[in-house]
Structures are given as structure tokens and as C-alpha cells.
User: Fold this.
Amino acid sequence: MFIRAILFDLDETLYDERMSVKIALEKASAHAAARFNSINRAQLERIYLEEANKRWEAFEEEIRMKGRGAQQDPLRVREMCFAQALAACGAPPSFSPELTRFYGDQRRGCHLLFQDSKETLEQLRSQAFIALVSNGGSAYQREKLKATGIEHLFHVVIISEESGYSKPQKGIFEKALRECCVPAHEAVMVGDNLEKDILGAKIVGLRGVLICRNGDRPKFGAGQPRPEAILHSLGELQKTLTTFAGKKS
Ligand SMILES: [Mg+2]
Assistant:
């Protein structure tokens, strides 16, 4: 059995979201602190990140509930996070639109892939369909693909805001498989999030490859399905695919 399609998550799998956010956010907090004395930069950054975690999850949840009828504007998500952080730091939330623009400019200036991402995609695309299956706002995710020079390496790109499905919903994986014209048992999903990437994929019969870039051993709950493989870098993926090829699904 050959693997004919490989589905990849984007953030923290191919793209270093954490580092890109950290660099841009440090510049944004410096920009805000230069304007308002009351701002404690560490506090502003912490509250922004807490808000972003909550609000992006709510953004995805709305897609799961309403599909393409979801109404949240990704730019507004960032604005609301900065408004909340500014207010908590005693600065006017009305500065949020300017700060959001500044932060967006910084993000555009520091899009970062992991070292092994581009080479892996280049190698694998000659042997299988390569699909991106990513949660997130369309404009932000596509900006990352373009800026890092990997957009052309995907045969199929599925983003939750565009598709009306959000991981771990099975519809998003089914759509990727349909567009690749490959059945689930001849495909794998590679991602860093056990619940969203791996469990979601397994529901539709895909093999799950969990990537743990920090080297940690993931903790599994009792009775929770396990990924078929756990990797610490994408450099190990080719070997894993070869072992899959020798086994029945
Ligand atoms: Mg991810």
C-alpha cells in the first residue's frame, strides 16, 4: 500500500507560529509602551496571547457551528485582543486599530518556517499529493504560504475559514481527500495537535502522524486513540511513510 496523499497542518508543523508571534508581539508591545507610560510590556504581551487563544478558538467554533455562514472577521479578532490587553494595562483600547496594523506589518516582516519544512515538501510532492489542512483566517494563512515561498508546493489548500469546516471536524479532512482523489486508507495527516490533527483525521480513517518539535513525549488520555507515528522533525517523515507502505492499513 503506497501513501498517495499527505495532508499537512500549517502552524507549529511547517510554520513557526510561536516564534513569529513572539518577535512581532515584542515589537508591538514596545511600540505601545513608547506611546503610553502605563504599559507594562510583559503584561500586554501575556494578555494579548491569552485573549488570542480564547478568541481564535471561538473563531473556529463559529465555523464548526455555522460553516461558511460564520461572520467573525479575523482582523477584528486581533483588534479585540489588543483592545483587551491595552485596557488591562491602563491604556486606551481605541489605540487597538493602530496597534493591530503595526503588529500585522511586523508579522509580514518575520514569517518563519521550520528548517526542514520546505525541503520535505519539495521531496514528497513528486511521490504523493500534498495538501494543506489548516485552521485559521484565509488571508493570514495564505499570507504565510506566499511569504515563505511554499504555496506552490501544495496540490490542494484547505483553510477552515474558506471551507466552512474546522479541524477536528471530519468534513475538512474529507474535503482534502476528495480534492486529492485519494481514499483515506492511502493518505496520512501530519500535525502537531493531538486532538485537532490526529483524532480528527482518524475519524475518517486517515493515519495520523504527530509531530512534537520540542522533543517531549506526548501524554495520552486513557482510551484515547494513538497516532500511528510520533516524529520530532519532518526529516523523519520519509522513513515513516516507507514503513506505512509495507503495512496494511
Ligand atoms: Mg498546528
Remarks:
- The mean pLDDT is 95.
- Residues 201 and 234 are 18 Å apart (CA to CA).
- Residues 41-66 form the longest helix (26 residues).
